[in-house]
Write a structure and sequence with these properties.
single chain, 140 residues, alpha+beta, four-stranded mixed beta sheet
Length: 140
């Protein structure tokens, strides 16, 4: 079976206003167990506009090993119609991780609560993704 494509969906918009809004929410949120965007914390370390070196290395390792075909990171306002419909029809909450295997459509891999549990650690996130993929490859 071909490796799935992963989609990391942020709880933020890509526009300038979206970035400003996210920054404000991030700075005023005091709930460490429910961050504004746990996916942003994992990939960007919080407020940075650049991906962290740890995330870049972890992402490259996952793709280079063949565990996943590609990892796409998308903001709420960048979703294609298929992903938008999938999220809305299931009442899913941002951020999240989805997977798509050729011929089998989208599936939810990780919820916002599950992402929050990583507390911004890209290595722990990637370990969990590897575990999920190796244990449920046929389900994706």
């Amino acid at each position: 079976m071909a490796a799935p494509m992963l989609f990391v969906l942020y709880n933020a918009d890509a526009s300038v206003m979206g970035k400003l809004s996210y920054g404000y929410k991030k700075l005023t949120n005091r709930d460490k167990d429910n961050p504004t965007c746990a996916a942003c914390d994992i990939t960007h370390g919080g407020l940075s506009l650049d991906e962290t070196s740890q995330w870049k290395a972890a992402k490259a390792d996952l793709v280079d090993s063949g565990a996943v075909k590609e990892i796409k990171q998308l903001h709420r306002d960048e979703l294609d119609p298929e992903i938008k419909e999938f999220v809305q029809s299931r009442g899913l909450h941002f951020p999240m991780v989805l997977a798509r295997n050729e011929g089998s459509g989208l599936t939810s891999v990780m919820s916002s609560d599950e992402l929050a549990a990583f507390k911004g650690d890209p290595q722990a996130f990637m370990k969990k993704i590897r575990d999920l993929l190796s244990g449920a490859q046929s389900a994706l």
